[in-house]
């Protein structure tokens, strides 16, 4: 059975999220007061409607309690606060809310949002990480001390198998997946016999200090 997601607010963040979910065969209902935004996305998702989600009766009428996730992608603080409050009252299963800054995020969490994202801050964090460690091309925070990093393989890894590299013992990290660059081919939990190639990306789990040891000295 396909997941159902309601996306409230079809600006840049909301529309991109909605389209991406739809591409993954998720049933997506998009809502916005702006007719143009609704029209622009109507062919890309399951359903898009023009409505004012700050009205509790509107949220009730679209069955927010039946959706697996409800995304509040509004930049307006008062609107997002009101919507999250109503969603919690209407027993939404999981609320993902967008915030403009930490103060906004704190309010949304207090009102009951299950997860809050700050897109600009998250993007800035990734860019800062890229400047500090250029070979760590992407990362995803898990717990305060753990990350999943997407890195280019160091030169000394190329041509060697995972068994030969013995990364768990040498670096205390785990290879979760390997992807061929510029393709959709990905190997989840690659076997020990897999030989690292130069045009691959490694998805590595570990503590930040151990992940950084995989990278060349950039001083």
UniProtKB/TrEMBL annotation:
Q: Which InterPro entries does this chain map to? A: K_uptake_TrkA, NAD(P)-bd_dom_sf, RCK_C, RCK_C_sf, RCK_N, Trk_Ktr_HKT_K-transport
* One GO cellular component term: plasma membrane
Q: Name one GO molecular function term.
A: potassium ion transmembrane transporter activity
- Annotated RCK C-terminal domain ranges read 134-219
Domain RCK N-terminal intervals: 2-118
Q: Which UniProt keywords apply?
A: Ion transport, NAD, Potassium, Potassium transport, Transport
Pfam families in the cross-refs: TrkA_C, TrkA_N
Q: Which residues form the signal peptide?
A: none
Q: What is this protein called?
A: Trk system potassium uptake protein TrkA
Origin organism of this chain?
Thermodesulfatator indicus (strain DSM 15286 / JCM 11887 / CIR29812)
């Amino acid at each position: 059975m396909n997941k159902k997601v309601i996306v409230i607010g079809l600006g840049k963040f909301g529309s991109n999220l909605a389209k991406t979910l739809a591409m993954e065969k998720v049933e997506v209902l998009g809502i916005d007061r702006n007719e143009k935004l609704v029209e622009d996305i109507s062919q890309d998702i399951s359903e898009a409607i023009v409505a004012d989600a700050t009205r509790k009766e509107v949220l009730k009428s679209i069955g927010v309690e039946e959706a697996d996730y409800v995304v509040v992608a509004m930049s307006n603080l008062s609107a997002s606060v009101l919507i999250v409050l109503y969603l919690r009252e209407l027993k939404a299963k999981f609320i993902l809310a967008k915030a403009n800054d930490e103060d906004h995020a704190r309010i949304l969490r207090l009102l009951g949002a299950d997860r809050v994202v700050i897109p600009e801050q998250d993007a800035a964090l990734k860019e800062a990480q890229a400047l500090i460690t250029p070979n760590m091309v992407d990362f995803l925070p898990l717990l305060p001390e753990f990350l999943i990093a997407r890195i280019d393989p160091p030169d000394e890894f190329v041509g060697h198998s995972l068994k030969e590299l013995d990364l768990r013992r040498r670096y205390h990290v785990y290879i979760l997946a390997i992807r061929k660059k510029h393709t959709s081919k990905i190997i989840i939990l690659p076997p020990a016999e897999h030989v690292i190639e130069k045009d691959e990306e490694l998805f590595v789990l570990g503590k930040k200090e151990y992940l950084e040891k995989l990278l060349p000295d950039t001083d």
